[in-house]
Amino acid sequence: MDMAIDGAAAPSLASLLHQSRSLAAQQGRSDLPAIQLGLEQIEAQSRRLVARAAPGAPPPGAHEKAHYFLAGAGVDASQLGADVRRVELRGAFEMLEAVGDTDVESFLRHSHEHLILSSIEEGRRETLADFNQSMARGMAHNWQKQRARIFEELGQHASTSAVEDFTSAGPQRGASAPPQTQLHGRMMRYDSVLSSLSSARLASQPFPLASALSTAVSTAASPSAADAPLAEAWAALASIVGEQVDAKKERFVGPAVRERQFACAYGDAWEKESGRELRNQISRGGMEFLQRQFEQHMDSTIAANPVKAQLGGAPSMRARVAAFVRVVHLDRDGRWAGDLELVSTAQGPVPVWAHIYYLLRTGHSSLALDVASEHDAALRSSDQSGSSSSGSSFVAYLKAWLDSPDRRLPKALRDRFLAEYNARFRSSSSLDASSVDAYKAGLYKLLGRIDISKRFPPALTRSTENWLWLQLSLVREQDEGKERYGLTELAEKLVGYGEKHFDPKGTRPMHYFQVLLLCGEFERAVAFLYSRPQHQVDAVHFAAALAYYGLMRVPTNAQTSHVDFLTVETTSSGAPRGLLDFAKLIQRYVRLFSRSDARSALQYLYLICLNSDAPAPAGQEQTKKCHDAIRQLVFETRQYFDLLGDIRSDGTKIPGLIERNLSLIHLANSRDYTSQIVCAAARQSEAEHRTRDAILLYNIAEEYDTVVSVMNRELGASLFDTPAPSAVADASASGTPGAARLQPEASLAAAEDTAQLARAILDSYEQQNHIVRAITPRKRETCKVLLALKDAVALYAAGELEKTLNTVESLDLIPLNKSDVVSITRAAEQFKDMDEAIARNISHILLLVMETLYKLHGAQAQSPFGDAARQQRMNELRNKARVLMMYAGMLRLRIEQSTFSQLTRLDVFIH
């Protein structure tokens, strides 16, 4: 269709197509794909254009504008319009082959093709949707694992930096950091105690753990300011569990505290009778510690003020109390404080109420009763309420209170006591008024457990220890209803106050830790102490001690937090209860030194199994976590022989450290140990391609058939790797690679490479009939063949070509000495029965043999001698090369194409 506008040749559709293609070519961009539209796509786009233009007519003047626009481009619009009108469009969208109304076969074929295309498209969409869903599930699953690993790594680095940065950066909230040398020394002393604990546990003997750890802290060569409160905290724990020890002889002087003694009462039975008894013991132990602590404070106060105290040379407890009262309440002129109620005695006026209180405060209740009895008349006469004629005196109340097992006044006596209390104290404006002796008011409030929710006089609660002792003195576990004030309620009160109440400046973390410890909030106490970097080591060992005594609750896997060690659950009674992830705490700590001291790390990992008796499923999960942690330690440190044991080349088995301590990780026998620890570590090593480690571990586990399988797989994978220098040297010197065997007493780990290790193991196995019977014969023969091939590779590298050829011929893998086609064909058919470890190397084996033949043939051809023997040898080598090519041709599909080309080239050179 040629047209002329203004004397110029009008472009045709073909020329436009050519110009468009030329334009694309001139761009020179390979990233622009060529657009090739099929008929269906052209049809679809045409219909879209028609549908887009159909709804409305072109605007006025559009044709004229288009005419001028096209004319400027050299297009005759009127002529093109005429040509388009002449085009027959009736059959444009019809099928190329018309389908008649009666052509059923064509219609069905057309429908069938459409169904196939629709099915393919639907399958594609379903496959894509399934892939997206599977990918999303996989990413979510992997993210859960990665998130847990990230949190674990963050915790590891936090712990590590906490230890390393003690000297470079101060810990949180202004607490002073111990020097790194002191911290390391404390860790070593702690480690020594835990080693002694493991020995005692193996011997089924009780061990005074809290007392031993307290001694380890207090006997530091270079004590720090933090050691004193730390030793007090250990003493508090020893008091709570009732551990009485002769420090010099390091043995119990009272009833021995056994391993996990309180686990049952602290677990499921916490709300039952045994749980109430344990709570009473915790309260009583806390009070006894506070009493001993106050007695030490009293002695140090007296020693600091000897003149004012006026204490004699051999003072009794009563004399020490009297001296302390003088130091505290006498002014410079020797006058008593005005708020004290004085009783006239032969020695003059004495604040007897203060004496009685401090004797109770230091735990000398019988002496307090003696003082009250001696001054009974004076106490009666000093009563200003006129109630002394009621028939009861304070001495009677005190005696009844002390005689009661749970320190409770009988109901009738308490009613009279309450009446006296109301008459004497509630009529006053307040308990701390100047007219009321604070010690007297406090004693009455204490004996009668009156107004529990109200405060004691401020003079008695100026320190946290004094306040806490009074609160513990009020604790009773049998009370119900409004009068209930047990250890749980006290703990809730303390937790509600928080650290800022007891340590506003945050400079005494051990102070708040001790408060939580004395009220039985053991999990919260450890979690709080671990949050202070300078005390993380101490927190771990407090957790270990609590777990040993059975005073540690652990969460199930479902309750475990990825970030925090502490989780809180609500009991059936509605009270909150803490759970501590003890296993994670131990693992974080062990990572600090596991690579440098795996033996010590094991002592800590053993402790995880202490909680195996926790309520299900937590107990079983703790055991599994312990085993997992031990396997990970073995896998990371790779100290297999110290930890798992060793097998020498002569078959002698030496048990490892873990096997000697099976009872500590709750494994009944060596079979369970092999299955749970050794085999699992071997499988993990194999999965991570630490094949040499896997071989050694499977050998320790006595999985002999698996050992040979792994050796075959590794030998096959590394058959043509560069031989070890020693193997090449042996082959070069003696022509017998692998001749150097391990000494009988040598460890199998001393082998230089897999080949030497496999030889040592195979030699050891063949000397023991029970092992030989446990190995599949074919696997054993395959191992021998692979070792021989390994020798051939070393011989070839050493230039021992004749011995290389003889070694390969002795294996009968390649029918080099066969001349008939039947034998060669039979050998090729037997290839399918060849072990995969050998079959995968057939290309390299054939090439090795052919190169050996080529070099031997070349050496014979270059020989200056022309005797018949040389010609005969050359003919033999050519025949072997011909047989090898026939054999390779029958295995053409199993041989790499590049290898076959090299074989052909070498064969041509030989012939």
Give keywords:
911 residues; mainly alpha; two-stranded antiparallel ribbon; elongated; disordered N terminus
Radius of gyration: 47 Å
What is the tally of beta strands? 10
Number of helices: 41
Write out the strand line-up for the largest beta sheet, numbering strands in chain order: 1-2
The chain-level structural class is: mainly alpha
Q: What is the average of the pLDDT values?
A: 83
Compute the separation of the termini in Å: 70 Å
Helix content: 55-70%
Strand content: under 5%
Low-confidence stretches: 1-8, 155-176, 384-391, 428-433
The backbone outline, from C-alpha atoms, is: elongated
Largest sheet: 2 strands, antiparallel
Please explain how this structure is put together.
With 911 residues, the protein is mainly alpha-helical. Among the domains are: 180-272 and 502-613, no CATH class; 305-462, no CATH class; 638-800, no CATH class; 812-911, no CATH class. The protein is built from 41 helices and 10 strands. The chain has a two-stranded antiparallel sheet with strand order 1-2. It has a two-stranded antiparallel sheet with strand order 3-4. The radius of gyration is 47 Å and the shape is elongated. It starts with a strand and ends with a helix. The relative contact order is 0.04. Mean pLDDT is 83; it is low at 1-8, 155-176, 384-391 and 428-433.
